[in-house]
Write a structure and sequence with these properties.
By secondary structure, the chain is mainly beta. It has one domain (17-68). The protein has no helices and eight strands. It has strands at 11-12, 17-20, 28-31, 36-40, 43-47, 52-55, 61-65, 71-72. The strands form three sheets. Strands 2-7-4-5 form a four-stranded antiparallel β-sheet, with no helix packed on it. A two-stranded antiparallel ribbon has the order 1-8.
Length: 73
């Protein structure tokens, strides 16, 4: 396994939104401290706090904070 980048213990503003239609080119592992909304195949999926989410390489990456909340990972 090769780790390209790591972020930890960061809180984003309530307007946080990631939209990578082609993905990032790598697998993406996200450890959530707050709830978040992930858009998978056009459907919004609400994921609770203290969850883990994995995007395989080459998949679109679309996620954001829940309404009126911050995003912490």
């Amino acid at each position: 396994m090769k780790i390209i980048n790591a972020g930890f213990n960061h809180t984003h503003d309530s307007d946080f939104n990631i939209d990578r239609p082609e993905g990032s080119g790598d697998n993406l592992l996200i450890l959530l401290r707050s709830g978040a909304v992930f858009n998978i195949d056009g459907r919004d999926i609400r994921v609770p706090e203290n969850s883990l989410f994995v995007y395989p390489a080459g998949r679109p990456q679309r996620y954001r904070c829940m309404d009126h909340c911050t995003f912490s990972n």
